[in-house]
Write a structure and sequence with these properties.
The protein is mainly alpha-helical. The protein contains 8 helices and 4 strands, in the order H-H-E-H-H-H-H-E-H-E-E-H. 12% of the residues are buried.
């Protein structure tokens, strides 16, 4: 709630965001991407520049990308109509698959996304290694080494989903 925001502390955090985060994650409110500041929103930053744990990136293999490019390949909405408006090679038009992605590829980095709605995006960091905003504000060595995910109870004090305790363990 707005009445619980420490304005002085929020201004200090805003300065840190402008200095450390703005160029990749953009303006805190739309439009996120502008000339100069926020110019890298939507682009991919190479893993060597981010200096984060590679585990999530390394788990996305070329084989997985190739498999993703075949998702929904056998499910045209109306096969005959699709063939009629198909391509020269006789295959259905991509218009027949409105929800199909077809250009998955390994980028060797993470996409720079705006941080709007951040309170709903746990776990945090490019590799999902931080369970909640409270932990994100702690020094890296004080953050949990592991945590449960999948429990849908929200922790308003830590700003993220509950990741510890019997409920989280049972659901995770």
């Amino acid at each position: 709630p707005a009445d619980r925001i420490d304005r002085e502390l929020a201004e200090t955090g805003g300065a840190v965001y402008r200095d450390e985060c703005w160029s990749c994650h953009g303006n805190p409110e739309p439009p996120f991407r502008t000339e100069g500041d926020g110019s890298r929103v939507g682009t991919v930053t190479h893993i060597d520049r981010i200096l984060t744990d590679r585990s999530r990136l390394d788990s996305y293999t070329q084989e997985l990308a190739s498999a993703q490019n075949t998702l929904y390949a056998g499910f045209p909405e109306d096969e005959e109509a699709c063939r009629e408006r198909g391509r020269d090679d006789g295959r259905p038009s991509m218009e027949c698959y409105p929800a199909r992605f077809s250009h998955f590829r390994k980028t060797w980095g993470y996409a720079n996304m705006p941080l709007d709605g951040l309170w709903l995006r746990a776990p945090y960091l490019h590799n999902g290694s931080v369970p909640d905003l409270r932990s994100l504000l702690e020094p890296p060595e004080a953050r949990p080494d592991s945590f449960w995910i999948g429990y849908t109870v929200y922790d308003y004090d830590r700003v993220g989903f509950v990741t510890r305790g019997p409920g989280a363990e049972r659901e995770g």
